[in-house]
Amino acid sequence: MTCSTTSSTSSSGIESVVIGSDGDRTFGVRGVVEGFFGHQYNDDPQGGGLWSFDRRKYVVDLMAAKNQNTFVYAAKCDPKNKNNWREDYTVEEMTQWTEFVHYCQAKGITFIFGISPGASFDWYEAYDKDLETLTQKLINFAVQTGCRAFALCFDDGPLVLVPDDEVKFGSLGEAHAATANAIHTVVTAALTTSSSTSLQWYICPRHYQGPLMMTNPELPQAAFSVVRKYLDALNTITNSEFSFFWTGSEVVSQKITVAHARWWRQYFGERKLVIWDNTPVNDFERDTIFITPYTGREPGIVEYLQGILSNPMPDAGASLIQLSTIFDFLNSPHAYDPIASLHRSLSKYISDSGILDDMEFLILHSDGGPACTLTTPATPWDQIQPVVERVLARGQQFIDPKIWPDLQKYFLKQKSFHTTVSTGKGKVLY
Q1: Which of 272, 276, 280, 288 would staple 243 via disulfide (CB 3.0–4.6 Å)?
Q2: Is the dihedral of CA 10, 11, 14, 15 positive or negative?
């Protein structure tokens, strides 16, 4: 699709973009959040760890080719980003980050630097010191790399404040809001000049998902008092320039519906919401890879959401298969066809029609993960095995080397077991 874009606003007040000749709306924020859990270095025997910069670049290359615009770095396995966030990156690391931020910018991709201080941030005695350290880390990163977009990730921290902290702030939501506002003020003052690019700001709340019962204001307060108290404070007090990340009705959402999005919009009001979509991420189930096409997201949600960002797998190469289909949905949600999109995705990376057909068969008869809504009958292993054998025999010759190592590892593992393959919402049973 050739994309010409013009600004537009939906009936719910969310800025969208009109693309293509069909006038289908797309999301204002489209792309990837590198936010999976894994090992610090690429030493996980199952392949989970930080992406290399080369892998990040070929993800960005696909994003640029597919008209995406946002890459968030919020890796849970980077100690300098999470557990040891007070520690500065080395000179060598900062050189690499600078080069990558510039690479993104050259491709038309906004790079967002996310940081996760919540688990160890001192909300009481050393609060001022920690606040200054965190603020200065963002300023230093921005000055060196040219990054002008930031995400404060308060997820995976404490659920409530200890009594002394409550005296200081009143509640966890108030603490997070006050801290975000203070950082916003200082960083904006340090980086803004008359000719500078405006800054972008995001928060991942401590409570970042919820079904209707958690965001429906008509339900009794007792049903969700802790979550509601937190979100009420965070949403009310935090500077309006912050968009909120939200994973959907669950941490890994099988479906994101218009009904969900409408309730979130009613609850959060004018606050812009970006879905941190935990698919195809597999850090919770490293024995498999999720490469089925993107499903379960109703196209009408574009009217209520600022954007969607996919959280991929540590297996960056294999992630490209589903990412390509996700990007098709984000570009044109109403016209999206998951099977046709999968075929286009595989055609980009497979040069032999027979192997392409085999891969389509294997994908559509494999575990799609908890975010997948595709279902097909369970397929006996004796029907799967010969297809796996053909792909293993010829894959290195005909499948792009960016994705083949991840696929080869997975199929060799699959071959070493001998039960049946379930499909749809089920699992590959090894």
Answers
A1: 272
A2: positive
DSSP conformation letters of 209-267 = ---HHHH-TTS-GGGSHHHHHHHHHHHHHS-TTEEEEE--SSSS-S-B-HHHHHHHHHH
User: If 0-12 CB within 10 Å is exposed, 13-18 middle and 19+ buried, where does residue 201 land?
Assistant: buried
Angstrom distance (rounded) from CA 210 to CA 227: 9
Write the DSSP assignment of 287-331 as a string of letters.
TS---SPP-SB-GGGGGT-SEEEE---S-HHHHHHHHHHHHHHHH
What pLDDT tens digit does each residue of the chain (430 aa) get?
A: 445 455 565 555 555 555 544 567 899 999 999 998 865 434 444 445 789 999 999 999 999 999 999 999 998 888 898 889 999 999 999 999 999 999 999 999 999 999 999 788 888 889 999 999 999 999 999 999 999 999 999 997 777 776 666 667 888 999 999 999 999 999 999 998 755 678 999 999 999 988 656 556 666 666 577 788 899 999 999 999 999 999 999 999 999 999 999 999 999 999 999 999 999 998 888 778 899 999 999 999 999 999 999 999 999 999 999 999 999 999 999 999 999 999 999 999 999 999 999 999 999 988 777 888 887 767 888 888 999 999 999 999 999 999 999 999 999 988 876 444 444 433 443 3
CB 408 within 8 A of CB 393: no
Gap between the Cα atoms of 3 and 19, Å rounded: 5
Taking the C-alpha atoms of residue 377 and residue 374, their distance in angstroms, rounded to an integer, is: 10
